[in-house]
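User: Here's a chain of 246 residues. Predict its fold as tokens.
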Amino acid sequence: MNTVTASQVLLYQPLYEQIKRMLTQSLIDGEWKAGEMIPSEMELAGRFQVSQGTVRKAIDELVSENILMRRQGKGTYVMTHNEEMMKLRFLRLTGEDGQKGVPQNQLLSCIRTKASAKVAKKLNLKTGAAVIEIKRVLVIGGRPLILDHIIVPSSEFSGLSAKQIDDYKGALYRMYEQEYGIRMIGAHEEIKAVAAEAETAEALDLAEGAPVLQIERVAYTYGDRPLEWRLGLCHTDQYHYHNELE
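Assistant: Prediction complete.
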């Protein structure tokens, strides 16, 4: 029986897909940081010995995935969480008026602990690996709406502490990017309705057993590498979860 090697598989990929993969590898290697301009299409075409059209198609794909962005008359840049369009990208709770409120973060705890078997599997870690566990409440319009339980690998976020989170004040994904050079580019989510347990009810000012929306998320950086597990418990009496399918 004939087998196909990885190098042969790459040969069967469209050329623009191969260029896209090489551009992504350059991002993984840190050649271009978040917010920095990448070389022009002409320069990249010379570097990879392909046509500008092939480079353009690869860049188009990365732009559509919010990994790169074009600025009219200036060039192509690495997308950053500082961009207005990215600030609330991962916040899906939307008011009945269609608007997203800007959340205020209330930190409950930030501790070092060991990964459970479930979380370790989600983050491609060994069970018992060192992790940092964060709990916080997101308040929108003066109301506590989301209880967040967040776990990240200690190896990637060395030094992350309650004081650092409190001092930063902004969104965690922006802090990951600015302080650790880690940019979250996407996430996988699983959603279901559950009854609020005692901790959730107290944090969100609800009756125990009240219905809440549970969103389990694994966020990943370049190369589909998972670096954050998050369990959000959301009070949705005046909000709904909004998503756009393409």
